[in-house]
């Protein structure tokens, strides 16, 4: 089934140094971390062997097939393909190079191979598809030498016959297009018997080249949404792979990337969003009434914005209902000596900057409610340490910095234990204890205790 093609004379071979390809571990797979050009030079100059592309579908197949997993483990190189693999890498904090999807990468590799005088054999696809793909490649790459073609049906029925035909062709590169995982299993089984030095599993490449399947528009490809185009073109065949398959892949990626402690963080964030979103909707009438009361009591905006220090020392703008006069910040320095609280944090029971409405808001912690918006933004949590001022953090002893290991909260151990009646050192002890032992159950207990603390008003001034 070898077919002859007419080509222009081969271009003179060019020399190049063989770069060493680095890998990044993603979901336990050593994926190439390099640019497209670096990868091409390494594959064409290196030791050869089977090379496979790895995308989200491949990861799902690997979980279902031990034989396929073993084939991936024996590959010369695994190339990252698609937005799913990029997302998995980000979850794990791994850094990849270029997106090396086969449909774009292989023609570039063959162009470089043609400049070196190397030839290629196309094996796979329905009868006639490999030949049509070869003609398309000849139009794209003038100097490319096609050593032969063979279909993936009758032509693949006998491994020995297929291997003999491929080896007789004298090809330097073999492209196998049988789909995942069949092509990888075929190469893993027969690689040692194949004469072509470089062997690649290329999936649907022949169908794209032959025009059997239309590629997504360039804009969709650049947006890394080619999978959505293929789903739209072949919804029946691709629904399982791209709908349920993508969900399964993301679940596998998250399971691999996140520790039990990370999952606790996911649960905490879900609790924050649920409670904060519900509270914002249910308390809207109270918000409106509070805004009106503040406006009637004193001049100035209803909301007060102030930079506070969040998790890992990152500053953010905290929201509160304004409970002080407009010149409150200017008066703060003069009032530091009147603080009723020992340590770094300033609190004064008879602070003259507080308005009449402000005292009521503070008594029942209503002034803190706009921080629900900070929670929804992800800057704060429902439960956590009190958010500190930058000037306070600058004066922290080293031990107190441990309280910045978690997001600040609307409520917490300090808030339910007496608030301003608790000294700074004791507050730090409480916050460090919370950071070390936080859990969803503890958060729920502290939220329940918050209602008692608000009603009692202890330490609220």
Structure characterization notes:
This protein has 461 residues and is an alpha/beta fold. It has 2 domains: 23-254, no CATH class; 262-456, no CATH class. 49% of the residues lie in helices and 13% in strands. It is built from 21 helices and 12 strands. The protein has helices at residues 36-45, 56-64, 66-73, 83-92, 102-115, 129-140, 159-168, 182-190, 205-210, 218-222, 226-233, 235-257, 260-282, 284-297, 328-335, 356-363, 371-377, 390-394, 413-416, 424-437, 440-456, and strands at residues 23-26, 29-32, 49-54, 77-80, 119-124, 145-150, 173-177, 198-201, 303-309, 315-321, 381-383, 409-411. The strands form 4 sheets. Strands 4-3-8-7-5-6 form a 6-stranded parallel sheet, with helices on both faces. The longest helix has 23 residues, at 235-257. The termini are far apart.
CA-atom Rg in angstroms: 32 Å
Strand content: 5-15%
Q: Which oligomerization state do the chains in this entry correspond to?
A: single chain
Q: Strand tally, please?
A: 12
- Main beta sheet, described? 6 strands, parallel
General shape: elongated
Low-pLDDT ranges? 1-16
Report the structural category: alpha/beta
Number of helices, counting only DSSP H or I runs of 4 residues or more: 21
The percentage helix is 40-55%
Instruction: Name the strands of the widest sheet in spatial order.
Output: 4-3-8-7-5-6
